[in-house]
Amino acid sequence: MYAAERQQLIERRLRADGRVSVVDLAQRFDVTTETVRRDLDLLETAGLLRRVHGGAVPIDSGSTAEATLVERRSVHSAAKAAIGARAARAIGEGFQGSVYFDAGTTTAAVAQSLAPRLRAGGIEIVTHALSLAAELAGQSGADLTVIGGRVRGVTAAAVGSDTVRTIENLRPDVAFVGTNGVSAGFGLSTPDPDEAAVKRAIVSAARRVVVVADRDKLGRELLVGFGALADVDVLVSDARPDAELALALADADVEVWNA
Fold first, then answer.
1. Whole-angstrom distance, CA of residue 183 vs CA of residue 186
2. Beta-carbon contacts of residue 86 (< 8 Å; ≥ 6 apart)
3. How many CA atoms lie within 13 A of 250 on its CB side?
C-alpha cells in the first residue's frame, strides 16, 4: 500500500471514530509504529488532524474547543437517545426523591426518557440548564427548581459563584452529569472553567453520580478537570471504553453501562 493511500484511510478512520491509535493503525496496516507516526506527522502538518499521546484526534478537538448547544443537538442524536434511555434506568420504578440534571444534550435525552415517570409525581427535579428547564416546566406532576446565575450563551446554562454556592447547599439523590471528556489519566473534563466549577459542585453534592457520554467523549481530555473517575458511580455510553480507560474505570469501581 502506498503512503498516500494509507494516509487517506487514516483520515477516514479518524472521521468515523473520532480518534486513532498508533498501535491500532500499525496492526491494521501491517506497518511499524514509526511509519504510522510519520503518517500522522504529515497529516498534522497538512492541518488534517492533531497529534495527541498515543495517536491523533480531529483538528477541532483542542482542549478549549466547544460546540454550541444548537450544533450539539444534531450530533449523534440517535446515540444520545439510546444513552438517555439506558441512563434513565438508574431511577427505579417507584422512585421518590430528588434528581439533578446537568446541562447538555445527552442529559436532556435522559430527561426525555424519564418523562412518563415524571408525570406520576414524587420526583423533585433541579437544574441550572435553562433550555432543559423550559422543557421540564411543561411536565405535569414534575416539581421543578431552577438554579439561576449568569447564563452562558454556548450552553444556555447558569454559571458563576452564586450558582455554585446554591448547588453546594443541595444533596440530590441522583445527578445526571454530562462531560466533554473522560480519560484514564485526567478523569472528567470540560473546556470552560465556569462550567467546570458548576459540574464539580454537582458531582460533590450528589449521593449518586451518573455520567452520560457518547463515544466521542471517551479518551478525550479538555482544558479543565472537574472530577476524578472515583467520583463517578455509573458511566453510560454508546461505545465500550478502550483497554486503558476500561481498566481505570474498573480500578475506580465505576459501573459501565452500554446503550
1. 5
2. 236, 257, 258, 259
3. 8
- Classify residue 243 by burial, with Cβ atoms within 10 Å: 0-12, 13-18, 19+: exposed
Cell of 188: 472528567
Query: Is residue 30 classed exposed, middle or buried when 0-12, 13-18 and 19+ CB atoms within 10 A define those classes?
Result: exposed
Q: Measured between alpha carbons, how far is 217 from 105 in angstroms, rounded to an integer?
A: 13
Instruction: Name all domains of the chain by residue range, CATH numbers in brackets.
Output: 3-57 (1.10.10.10), 69-258 (3.40.50.1360)
The three-state DSSP-derived secondary structure of the chain is CCHHHHHHHHHHHHHHHCCEEHHHHHHHHCCCHHHHHHHHHHHHHCCCCEEECCEEECCCCCCCCCCCHHHHHCCCHHHHHHHHHHHHHHCCCCCCEEEEECCCHHHHHHHHHHHHHHCCCCEEEEECEHHHHHHHCCCCCCEEEECCCEEECCCCEEECHHHHHHHHCCCCCEEEEECCEEECCCEEEECCHHHHHHHHHHHHHCCEEEEECCHHHECCCCCEEEECHHHCCEEEECCCCCHHHHHHHHHCCCEEEEC
pLDDT digits (tens, 9 = 90+) for 6-35: 998 998 888 777 788 899 999 999 999 999
Beta bridge partners of 159: 150
Q: Identify the pLDDT of residue 62.
A: 57
- pTM, whole model, 2 decimals? 0.76
Q: Can you read off the three cell numbers belonging to residue 86? A: 439506558
